[in-house]
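Need a sequence for this fold. Nothing fancy.
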């Protein structure tokens, strides 16, 4: 590794690029010069030599002086903020704030003793102005005037903090996995409405869904809801077709054909055993095209026009990309050059020639927005304080709608991931392009504002996956392993400011997934801004390595026993994750050691429940004989796998499973899928239910404002929804909601089970 020069160190720091970082073990790691040069190049900065780096440092200083106003000013409502302004030296200047409503508020000039600077032969001076405190929340503008000229810049005034929600509980659901008798082989907004109704009766305050962002309109479809083509717009596969008002105006023959198609898809064995988007989506698309042709009432036409007006240019760009993807495929790199340019005249001509398809894509978003609004309205009308809580993914598909519509915003030549940690010593590559922090500022954070604002239109809360990404992201240069990345910092005051402002306007709750490697100040900062954190029971420990006492849980958090990256609690207690990881070859230590560690972890938490009277004093989930039998089976499996591997030759490195979306889409199905059942350890179902209820009872005794229960735990599911570190080796994001026997169950059947009632009763005691 080549050590960075002093100039490279300074230049990287100036651009918010970390030159060193602490890993999860507390070790300081220096970032190589090669990585720094590559990341700077992505930002358009040449640092290939010390001389180039020195020149870039001076250019950056000059560029700051050439800007009259900053790209954007973000401040909290009670915060005092001084803004520096640059004009020809000696020129008198006036700075005012023009509020959203048009009112003009003057800014006071304060002393500034910075010496003038000559840039391109012009002597420039710097003046400072104190922004007024107590400005109304909103998106305002700053105006600088001198010598008959004026320059404008956006100004964002965010709330000091959000109010924390009242204590309540709710389920977390992977909506696509939740099918009912009325849905099309995949969970939809009608199913979400049914779940909301069930929750209302049982005193739940919210329902947390997976990200429902837009996927590509072609097959094969990307199964992961965390790798969308657009985060701002939604996935029409979640539409309940029969609830669209125009469906009722179809002829009897048209409705009959649609019903027949729904039954064919729903009853297909392949859509029953796994969520098969590649079969469901084309069938629903054909039906939606029929409904789209139905005549709308004048009132609904007006509502449609209003929606299109509110979503402005962003909806048009998205609809055009969807229409293009439907015609030419979902990878815009393969389109003709004029169609890759969102501003080209040729694209305008193409869109005019295909106006019907573009309009159809906008209509899909409208009816999706309408159905989501109906669910949320019904939830709040029934008394749920939050209602539906959405989920915001970290990023987008590298060659999807967002990167096409705003290519300047997304960095090319790098992807986002995570550095090595004890769970993955190779690091992680998520195959997503990061937004450039410098371009976000130049664009006044408008893309982030539009994204959050759209997601909060019809939700009472938003979970932000990997909220640490608003502070820093791990950038990995193209062609390098995840171990050779570095952190790039974002203006978290601006990012969190936009997030809290949009939440304040929507009267919504924000929950940040703040797990993993987190700098010490981040959780305190988010708490002070009224953003809730995330606490997972298994990872909450005190300094002695024992379960954190409930009284010491954070109040400003959403607490749960499990996450979508862990098995449901029943499966976790039966070691489904260990057995699956063994079969997939992704264990990082011998299986008997892994089992011993996991058994210890589970034992100390169950002991903690016993000590608090949440489990019987003599409670025992497994006997010593059962534990020994499990170890014997695991060792026998290890020997069989080793023998098979030796016979077949060295397998591919299981740690190198990250793929781009394009590579993943080459095959609609995994080459080989190990059984998700993974032969979990036999256990007494009554004892298992007791253990699950005891663990959630432990959380009920905590101070957490939000308690979260996996829907899979409510119904006794054991199957893992997503196995990190795998792509097509396991059917990630395609596991249907199932019961204790691992047989898929419909929502009606699942919620009628006494297991769900009993666990809801535990949480209702909060």
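Here you go.
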């Amino acid at each position: 590794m080549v050590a960075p020069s002093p100039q490279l160190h300074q230049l990287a720091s100036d651009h918010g690029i970390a030159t060193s970082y602490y890993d999860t073990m507390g070790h300081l790691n220096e970032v190589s010069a090669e990585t720094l040069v590559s990341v700077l190049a992505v930002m358009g900065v040449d640092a290939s030599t010390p001389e180039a780096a020195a020149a870039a440092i001076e250019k950056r200083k000059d560029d700051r002086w050439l800007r009259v106003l900053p790209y954007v000013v973000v401040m909290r409502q009670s915060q005092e903020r001084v803004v520096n302004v640059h004009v020809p030296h000696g020129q008198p200047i006036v700075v005012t704030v023009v509020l959203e409503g048009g009112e003009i508020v003057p800014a006071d000039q304060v002393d500034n003793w910075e010496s003038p600077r000559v840039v391109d032969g012009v002597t420039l001076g710097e003046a400072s102005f104190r922004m007024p405190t107590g400005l109304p929340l909103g998106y305002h503008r700053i105006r600088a005037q001198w010598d008959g000229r004026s320059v404008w810049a956006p100004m964002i005034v965010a709330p000091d903090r959000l109010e924390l929600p009242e204590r309540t509980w709710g389920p977390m659901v992977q909506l696509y996995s939740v099918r009912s008798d009325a849905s099309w082989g995949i969970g939809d907004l009608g199913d979400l409405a049914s779940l909301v109704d069930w929750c209302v009766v049982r005193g739940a305050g919210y329902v947390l869904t997976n990200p429902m962002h837009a996927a590509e309109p072609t097959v094969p479809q990307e199964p992961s809801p965390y790798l969308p083509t657009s985060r701002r717009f939604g996935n029409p596969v979640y539409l309940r077709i029969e609830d669209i008002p125009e469906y009722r105006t179809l002829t009897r023959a048209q409705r009959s054909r649609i019903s027949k198609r729904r039954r064919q898809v729903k009853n297909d064995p392949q859509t029953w055993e796994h969520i098969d988007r590649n079969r469901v989506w084309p069938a629903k698309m054909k039906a939606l095209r029929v409904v789209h042709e139905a005549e709308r009432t004048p009132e609904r036409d007006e509502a449609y026009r209003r929606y299109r007006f509110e979503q402005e240019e962003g909806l048009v760009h998205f609809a055009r990309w969807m229409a293009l993807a439907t015609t030419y495929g979902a990878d815009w790199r393969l389109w003709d050059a004029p169609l890759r340019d969102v501003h080209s005249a040729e694209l305008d001509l193409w869109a005019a020639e295909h106006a019907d398809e573009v309009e159809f894509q906008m209509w899909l978003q409208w009816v999706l927005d309408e159905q989501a609004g109906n669910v949320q309205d019904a939830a709040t009308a029934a008394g749920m304080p939050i209602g539906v809580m959405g989920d915001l993914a970290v990023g987008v598909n590298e060659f999807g709608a967002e990167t096409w519509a705003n290519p300047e915003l997304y960095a090319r030549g790098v992807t986002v991931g995570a550095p090595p940690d004890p769970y993955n010593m190779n690091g992680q590559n998520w195959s997503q392009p990061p937004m450039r922090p410098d371009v976000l500022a130049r664009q006044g954070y408008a893309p982030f504002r539009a994204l959050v604002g759209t997601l909060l239109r019809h939700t009472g809360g938003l979970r932000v996956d990997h909220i640490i990404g608003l502070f820093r992201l791990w950038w990995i240069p193209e062609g390098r392993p995840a171990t050779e990345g570095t952190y790039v910092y974002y203006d978290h005051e601006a990012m969190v400011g936009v997030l809290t402002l949009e939440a304040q306007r929507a009267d919504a709750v924000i929950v940040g997934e703040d797990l993993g490697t987190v700098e010490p100040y981040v959780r305190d900062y988010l708490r002070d801004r009224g953003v809730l954190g995330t606490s997972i029971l298994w990872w909450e420990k005190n300094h002695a390595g024992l379960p954190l006492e409930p009284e010491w849980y954070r109040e400003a958090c959403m607490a749960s026993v499990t996450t979508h990256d862990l098995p449901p609690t029943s499966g976790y207690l039966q070691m489904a994750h260990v057995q699956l990881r063994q079969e997939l070859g992704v264990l990082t230590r011998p299986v008997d050691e892994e089992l011993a560690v996991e058994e210890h972890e589970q034992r100390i938490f169950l002991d903690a429940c016993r000590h608090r009277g949440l489990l019987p004093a003599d409670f025992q989930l497994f006997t010593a004989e059962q534990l020994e039998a499990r170890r014997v089976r695991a060792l026998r499996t290890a020997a069989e796998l080793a023998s098979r591997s030796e016979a077949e030759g060295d397998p591919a490195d299981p740690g190198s499973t990250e793929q781009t979306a394009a590579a993943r889409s080459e095959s609609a199905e995994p080459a080989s899928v190990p059984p998700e059942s993974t032969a979990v350890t036999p256990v007494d179902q009554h004892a298992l239910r007791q253990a699950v209820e005891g663990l959630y009872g432990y959380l009920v005794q905590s101070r957490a404002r939000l308690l979260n229960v996996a829907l899979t735990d409510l119904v006794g599911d054991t199957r893992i929804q997503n196995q990190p570190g795998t792509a097509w080796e396991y059917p990630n994001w395609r596991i249907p909601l199932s019961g204790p026997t691992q047989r898929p169950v419909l929502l009606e059947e699942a919620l009628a089970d006494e297991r769900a009632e009993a666990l809801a009763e535990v949480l209702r005691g909060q």
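For context: Residues 195 and 207 are 8 Å apart (CA to CA).
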